[in-house]
């Protein structure tokens, strides 16, 4: 579904150049929830933003479905982006528009007729459980509700792919789980391919089928989520998993003493 | 005598309102074009064109660094060319519009810059054109700040109008100078000042009201 080959990206700020991605190769299967995990600054956002070319790659090739994203001109890219939904850590809803108008935005950009828009937006709001919030402005919503609006907006054009850049990172744990459940639900219902970036192992473990670990702008390892836990190879993966091991060991010691804390 | 004073004030106020209203409209049109162009042509803007950005920025700074009274004198030939005379309120509108437009351009640029880059990115990711982003994201999201900025600019234009009165533009400014300064009519001078202060207060009050009602509708207040 998504093929990334030899993708590289450097940022130039003044005299300095930062290599954000070097020679990334990735293959993501249709219908998977694919997790990309790494520490802060590893290059996760740059990678996912290259997929819809919010960031222009320096070199490399990106194919989504039948479309060679890296070959498109501006106009073709705008059309292709309609089929690539995206959700963000800070939701990025428009405060000047109601929930309905926010979700309708991609459809009116695409020039759909009003009755179609109304029907489609209502269906999406029902899917994310916000039927009753149609005429409310985003500032009245909780974080979790805002992200639901973000998800509805990202899905309203029936995309093939959903890109999620730390979409749960500013939510509390309980809300995080409800959003992750929603994503799983959507993935199953719509057979949507989801690329999910996170710095939280918990998120990865909860919803992802396969994963890639990114370290200093390179893919350090890929495989199933189970493999990451059972045989972590990269430095990053071992550090993530060792935190869990630490508490498991500690717990068994405490249990061994028969002490309750 | 009192009737005479009221008549003078009323005529002056009408001329001032005429100048302020039209100058504001024209300055606003030019200012929006300048401000939007400055924002979208920035290095990371949605229609990046750094050279154009530099040129416009330098022009704006140039015009803004001139004292307004000198600018009016410089623009007199332009006024004569556009309206056929360099005297009177209509001629002053030409100078006032051109003089205030760069100021408005900067104010509008600053308001638009407050819109988070994330919202613009989200619109891009949905396949929006730069045009759509300008009219459906940038301007509506910045609207309360825009209204506040424009209010400040209209008040500045009111002040400029009074200054323009000194060189024959008419309005309350020339009333204050002709009678208050040249003929020592302190009563007219004070009355003019009171009317100008009231006018400025009214503009500020209306601007605040509009901005607040937008925010209240969006439940951001
Ligand atoms: N617009 C930018 N300009 C300059 N450097 C950037 C920019 N965006 C990201 N970087 C740098 O690229 C590297 C990767 O950043 P990012 O992809 O945001 O990491 P992550 O999302 O994994 O935290 C970091 O070193 C970051 O400082
Ligand atoms: Mg990031």
TrEMBL record, chain A:
Residues covered by the ABC transporter domain: 2-241
Could you state one GO cellular component term attached to this entry?
plasma membrane
The record's GO molecular-function terms, alphabetically, read: ATP binding; ATP hydrolysis activity
Xref: Pfam families: ABC_tran
Has the keyword Cell membrane been applied to this entry? yes
Tell me the SMART domains matching this sequence: AAA (SM00382)
Report if keyword Zinc is assigned: no
Instruction: Kindly state which keywords UniProt assigns to this record, in alphabetical order.
Output: Amino-acid transport, ATP-binding, Cell membrane, Membrane, Nucleotide-binding, Translocase, Transport
Q: Which CDD domains match?
A: ABC_MetN_methionine_transporter (cd03258)
BP term (GO), one: amino acid transport
Superkingdom, natural source: Bacteria
Family that this chain belongs to? Belongs to the ABC transporter superfamily.
Name recorded for this polypeptide: ABC transporter domain-containing protein
Q: Which organism is this entry from?
A: Paenibacillus radicis
TrEMBL record, chain B:
Residue intervals of the ABC transmembrane type-1 domain:
13-205
Any one GO cellular component localisation term in the record: plasma membrane
What's in the keyword line of the UniProt record?
A: Cell membrane, Membrane, Transmembrane, Transmembrane helix, Transport
Q: Where in the cell is it found?
A: Cell membrane
Q: Which InterPro entries match?
A: AA_ABC_Transporter_Permease, MetI-like, MetI-like_sf
Segments passing through the bilayer: 20-41, 62-83, 89-108, 145-172, 184-203
Q: How does it sit in the membrane?
A: Multi-pass membrane protein
Classification via SUPFAM superfamilies = MetI-like
Q: Which PROSITE patterns match?
A: ABC_TM1
GO biological process annotation, one example: D-methionine transmembrane transport
Q: Please give the superkingdom of this protein's source.
A: Bacteria
Family (UniProt): Belongs to the binding-protein-dependent transport system permease family. CysTW subfamily.
Its recorded name reads: Metal ABC transporter permease
């Amino acid at each position: 579904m998504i093929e990334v080959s030899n993708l590289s990206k450097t940022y130039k700020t003044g005299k300095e150049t930062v290599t954000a991605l070097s020679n990334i190769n990735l293959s993501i299967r249709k219908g998977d929830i694919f997790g990309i995990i790494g520490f802060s600054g590893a290059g996760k956002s740059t990678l996912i933003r290259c997929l819809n070319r919010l960031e222009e790659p320096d070199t490399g090739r990106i194919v989504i479905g039948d479309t060679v994203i890296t070959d498109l001109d501006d106009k073709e890219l705008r059309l292709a982006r309609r089929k690539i939904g995206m959700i963000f850590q800070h939701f990025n809803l428009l405060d000047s528009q109601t929930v309905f108008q926010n979700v309708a935005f991609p459809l009116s950009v695409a020039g759909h007729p009003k009755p179609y828009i109304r029907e489609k937006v209502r269906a999406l709001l029902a899917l994310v459980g916000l039927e009753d919030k149609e005429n409310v402005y985003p500032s009245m919503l909780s974080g979790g509700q805002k992200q639901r609006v973000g998800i509805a907006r990202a899905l309203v054009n029936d995309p093939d792919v959903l890109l999620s850049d730390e979409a749960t990172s500013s939510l509390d744990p309980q809300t995080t789980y409800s959003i992750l459940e929603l994503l799983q639900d959507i993935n199953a219902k719509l057979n949507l391919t989801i690329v999910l970036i996170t710095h939280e192992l918990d998120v990865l473990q909860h919803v992802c089928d396969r994963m890639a670990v990114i370290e200093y702008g390179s893919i350090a390892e890929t495989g199933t989520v189970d493999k990451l836990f059972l045989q972590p190879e990269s430095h990053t993966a071992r550090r993530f998993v060792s935190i869990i091991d630490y508490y498991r060991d500690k717990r068994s010691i405490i249990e061994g003493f028969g002490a309750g804390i | 005598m009192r009737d005479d004073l009221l008549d003078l004030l009323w005529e002056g106020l009408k001329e001032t309102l005429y100048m302020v209203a039209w100058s504001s409209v024209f300055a606003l049109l030019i200012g929006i074009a300048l401000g939007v162009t400055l924002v979208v042509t920035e290095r990371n803007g949605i229609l990046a064109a750094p050279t154009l950005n530099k040129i416009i920025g330098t022009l704006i700074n140039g015009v803004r660094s001139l004292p307004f009274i000198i600018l009016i004198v410089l623009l007199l030939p332009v006024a004569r060319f556009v309206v056929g005379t360099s005297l009177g309120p209509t001629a002053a509108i030409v100078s006032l519009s051109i003089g205030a437009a760069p100021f408005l351009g900067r104010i509008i640029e600053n308001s638009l810059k407050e819109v988070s880059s994330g919202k613009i990115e989200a619109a891009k990711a949905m396949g929006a054109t730069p045009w759509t982003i300008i009219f459906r994201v940038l301007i509506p999201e910045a609207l309360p700040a825009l209204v506040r900025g424009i209010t400040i600019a209209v008040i500045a234009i009111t002040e400029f109008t009074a200054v323009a009165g000194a060189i024959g533009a008419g309005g309350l400014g020339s009333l204050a100078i002709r009678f208050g300064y040249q003929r020592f009519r302190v009563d007219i001078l004070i009355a003019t000042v009171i009317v100008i202060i009231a006018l400025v207060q009214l503009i500020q009050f209306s601007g605040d009201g509009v901005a607040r009602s937008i925010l209240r509708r969006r439940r951001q207040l």
